[in-house]
Amino acid sequence: MTEPPAKMWSGRFRSAPHPIFDQWQKSIRFDWQLIDEEVLASKAHALMLEDAGILTHDERERIGHALDIIADNYSERQADIGNDRQAEDIHHFVELRLTEAIGELGLKLHTGRSRNEQIATDLRLYIEFRCRMLLVYLGKWIEQLLVQAKTAGDAVMPAYTHLQRAEPVLVAHWLLAYVEMLLRDASRLEDCMKRLNFCPLGSGAVAGATLALDRTIAARELHFTAPTANSMDATSDRDFVLEYLNALTLLALHASRFAEEITLFATAEFGFVDLPEEFSTGSSAMPQKKNPDLTELVRGKVGRIHGAAESVTLLLKGLPLAYNKDLQETQEPLFAASMEALKMLLVLPPFTRALTFRTDRMRAACETGFLNAMAAATYLVHKGIPFRKAHEKIGNAVRYCIERGCELGDLSLEELRQFGSEFDTDFFAAVTLEATLDCHDVIGGTARSRVHAALVETQQRVDALAAKYGPVGHEQEAAHARA
């Protein structure tokens, strides 16, 4: 059996790398996570080599079988790859294992390719799979938000602007706001997959392969849309990494906004939510405490994920074409952000399912503080009063109520008419809590009929997402276990 060289590039050098530099520059300590993608891409390259006459059919099958064994051997112990002392990176690791298994034939696999195109391909495959996996769990969280919205029925809560009570809304309407955010996040992940779905294999180191390879073979085998159009762009492009990390940032940001509101609503001052004990912790000093550690950690994770996007942005800024070793530094933030996003989406669905909303406290908060003032102004608009005048009249009425410690609905008709002769007995029905909700009878409004219809329509959209990405499969479960 032929012994492979210590390095994939050692022929030109007379001196071995300095041991400190050698360990420092290796990427095997983190790119071991690309073992599955490296095997898939290597098998696709072997198909192109067979088509080009570099490999016989039998040789290609032997290489493919050996690659499958390598993947199987390390499927449950991928992290062990990072401890390999000889391999420089995941590409080198696979070549070493392949040569151990089938001898010199293993060295033929690198014919007509470069690590520059290999890593570009591996990363595209990695992100495409993670997008699909995240979409599965994102769908699970959205489904739990929908379950809570349906369970809430016509329960009401205050909506806030400037963190001041503004108008009443249905609890379901508030929850559907987050569903809309998360459905946009899902669409961004899908868009990211569309743009990255082009195959760099055959791009060579920078100028294209030196063999007449049929690049469509590899693209078809790996389920890419087509080969990349330009070899220099293909080997240096990391737009798809940055786009993916930015999509994760927005997803984490939306999760953080939800977490912040739950944290606020769980305080004694609000009392709108009871935190589930199985997702809370206590204090080592204060026996009475039940702390919202889950929601606080979700808020904190945004910094990590956004930091990854910022890191890659700065790495790419001003980088000349084509491949530069700097691009190796995009991988660690990518892997870390992917894992943090997955962990977050693993815990949020069961947490959301376990939340208990105190709808009695929410309703009580809607019944004081003049949350029906907008509805009252609208009542006057229907009487022919210009809105600016109606706004002023109701503002004067609110000030009058504040001075007397009562609500608009508590005023007598005689008291109301000091602010305008337009007030009549039908005013009191127009400012009830239910009427205040239902006057927002527009698409996207919180009128009860509109929210009921929105629940049906949103469920259809969520069902379509679930049908597209399906239940969690074996590979997702494996990634789940690693998380």
What layout of secondary structure does this protein have?
Elements: H1 19-25, H2 28-31, H3 35-51, H4 57-74, H5 90-102, H6 115-152, E1 156-161, E2 164-170, H7 171-196, E3 198-199, H8 215-221, E4 226-227, H9 231-236, H10 239-265, E5 273-274, H11 293-316, H12 331-354, E6 356-357, H13 359-366, H14 373-382, H15 387-404, H16 413-416, H17 427-430, H18 433-438, H19 448-469, H20 474-482
Parallel strand pairs: 3-4
Antiparallel strand pairs: 1-2, 5-6
Task: Give an account of the 3D structure.
Mean pLDDT is 94; it is low at 1-5 and 478-483. Among the domains are: 10-111, Orthogonal Bundle (Fumarase C, Chain B, domain 1); 116-154 and 171-203 and 229-357, Fumarase C, Chain A, domain 2, CATH 1.20.200. The longest helix has 38 residues, at 115-152. It has a two-stranded antiparallel ribbon with strand order 1-2. Strands 3-4 form a two-stranded parallel ribbon. The chain has 483 residues and is mostly helical. 38% of the residues are buried. The chain has helices at residues 19-25, 28-31, 35-51, 57-74, 90-102, 115-152, 171-196, 215-221, 231-236, 239-265, 293-316, 331-354, 359-366, 373-382, 387-404, 413-416, 427-430, 433-438, 448-469, 474-482; strands at residues 156-161, 164-170, 198-199, 226-227, 273-274, 356-357. Helix 10 (239-265) runs parallel beside helix 12 and helix 14 packs across helix 15 (387-404). The two termini are 39 Å apart.
